[in-house]
Amino acid sequence: MPGTVNIYYIWYGPWNTTTDTTQTLLTNFAKHVGGTPYFNINKSYYDATNATVSGAVNFGGATYDLGSQGTVLRSWPGLAQPPRLCFAPNLKARGRRAKPGDPGT
């Protein structure tokens, strides 16, 4: 993913009425994670064209969905439990490979 990565949040459920600090915390994370040593770990991965993650991140915004798909998590057919939510991309799962010599390979 060369170039700037955009982060967007969809706050599902009654987040627009809560006084919880979760939204502030996660929005602050999205605004400041780019260029940090933690995020720059992603630079150790590259694609077939030798392009690496730039390290630049932009918080693209957020929206609210008050429950358009219901308010109860249900299991998907064939799964014992509802799927877990994840907001961090797994670069290896997207076809990225570690650079030669990476101790993690």
Describe the structure.
With 105 residues, this protein is α+β, with helices and mostly antiparallel strands. The protein contains one helix and four strands; from the N terminus they run βαβββ. It has one helix at residues 22-32, and strands at residues 5-12, 45-46, 57-65, 97-98. The chain has a two-stranded parallel ribbon with strand order 1-3. A two-stranded antiparallel ribbon has the order 2-4. Residues 85-99 and 101-105 have low confidence and may be disordered.
The average pLDDT value, as a whole number, equals 74
> In this structure, how is the largest beta sheet organized?
2 strands, parallel
Helical fraction equals: 10-25%
Strand content: 15-25%
Extended strand count: 4
Taking pLDDT < 50 over at least 5 consecutive residues as the criterion, the unreliable ranges are: 85-99, 101-105
What distance lies between the first and last C-alpha atoms, to the nearest angstrom? Answer: 20 Å
Individual helix count: 1
Global Rg = 17 Å
Silhouette: extended
SSE arrangement, N to C: EHEEE
Total count of domains? 1
Structural class: alpha+beta
* Strand neighbour order, sheet with most strands: 1-3
